[in-house]
Amino acid sequence: IDAHSEATMMIGDRMDTDVISGLEAGMQTVLVLTGITDRAAAERFPYRPTRILDSVADLIDEIGRDG
Description:
- The protein has a 3-stranded parallel beta sheet with strand order 1-2-3, covered by helices on one side.
- The protein has 3 helices and 3 strands, in the order βαβαβα.
- It is of the alpha/beta class.
- The chain has helices spanning 15-24, 39-43, 59-66, and strands at residues 9-12, 28-32, 51-53.
- The longest helix has 10 residues, at 15-24.
């Protein structure tokens, strides 16, 4: 897709797969709370996503603010 990690964001609902993969690839990460990981569970990991959102739908507001 010709995307570079500096301009790409990993979005997922699991800290142990999606977020860690994004971080290891040098990307910003977004944890969405629609899957297995909730806020309390996310706090137990030694690493943190760039953002935590309730839903993928909340990205519309995030993109509007940042873009």
